[in-house]
Design goal:
This protein is α+β, with helices and mostly antiparallel strands and about 110 residues long. The protein has helices at about 15-20, 35-40, 100, and strands at about 70-75, 80-85, 95, 110. It has three helices and four strands. The chain is elongated.
Length: about 110
């Protein structure tokens, strides 16, 4: 409802509510129907596997280390896919994007 609806940028409730009304978006006044802790259980879970076409990690797709070749990097844009550094030849990059976010022509974008 309105109590959970605010601007994602600044957090303002009132001005955001008025702007949404002017755009024809109606927000109910009632509170949430479900307990919020159980509404989105996957939100608190982090992606924890290598999605490279061929995972080279001897421990398998689920193994990850904090540093080194088996460090699991999540897509910097969506965080819905991950890769071990070695599985995608990412030796010195700080971030990585999956092929869905980077686009099929580029494959993987690194920075």
């Amino acid at each position: 409802g309105i109590h959970c609806f605010s601007c994602p940028h600044c957090g303002n409730v009132f001005r955001f509510f008025l702007e949404m009304l002017s755009m024809g978006i109606r927000i109910p006044r009632r509170g949430p129907l479900l307990d919020r802790r159980h509404t989105f259980p996957a939100v608190s879970q982090r992606h924890r596997r290598c999605d490279a076409r061929e995972c080279l990690c001897p421990g398998g797709r689920e193994q990850a280390e904090n540093q080194g070749p088996w460090q699991l990097l999540l897509c910097a844009s969506c965080a819905a896919e991950g890769t071990h550094r070695l599985c995608s030849s990412l030796e010195s990059t700080a971030s990585w994007e999956c092929s869905s976010c980077a686009g099929p022509a580029t494959g993987k974008r690194q920075s």
